[in-house]
Amino acid sequence: MDRTEEEEGGDEKVWNASAVILDIDSGSWADRSPLHDAACQGRLLALRTLILQGHDVNVLTIDHVTPLHEACLGDHPACVRALIDAGANVNTSTIDGVTPLFNACAVGSAACAELLLENGAKPQTLVYHPSPIHEATSKGHYGCVEVLVTWGADVDTDIPHLGTALYTACVCQELECARKLLREGANVQRGRSLDSPLHAAAEKDCTAVVKLLLDFGADINARNTEFQRPVDVAPPSSGTEGFLLLYEATPRRLNQLCRQRIRSCVGRDRLHLLSHLPLPNRLKNFLQYQ
Fold first, then answer.
1. pTM for this predicted structure
2. Nearest CA-CA partner of 263 in 245, 289, 237
């Protein structure tokens, strides 16, 4: 939005008095720098030219948004690489705790996420800060979830107001993301407080996710804070309620119990070694839920 010289001059005095460093272009005050605009729009040539001219790749807006934040939000991997090569801080965060990695996961840019992680981005943030794996899971960005897990993101990261990433996947009915987290060893019982992932899936009447969770050993008799079981929170007369009632009356399969026990003995940190066991491929695939 255009601003008058009087407005610009007044703002410049205010911010100078507050000792805030601003990017000045042709003598006018601006919150966003030319680097921000080039990164946001994916204009790689313009971005490289500005970098060669000496523009600070870590320049901040008032909200501490960097050009790298913008490049990730716009899903521009080439711009992300150019900024990183020029010294952009991959772990910088806005005043709200948003990192470039979070932005990449928000838009489902696995390519940008991979670049950030390869160059030292932390796969998870502090408690109460926006979580990349929760964001990717909530929007069904399977590729980003896969990249995060590969680079060491904790699949059981628990954000107090959101619960675990698996719980988020169940709330948002993202079946494939839930499957990926479980295959990587996510605790099938950990949700949000006493609400288990199975409670969340049952309440959403998502029978496919309910079946998946039970296959990974979810406790059908777990109680939430209201002392309700998953079947109690399922919509009355729904397909999910019917399935849970039938499941309660059906004995568990022996092969299912054996698989869960073997995976439990192996431990989450060694699940990746299952594929190296001296077993027939069919059995190895069974143990890995493939």
1. 0.82
2. 289
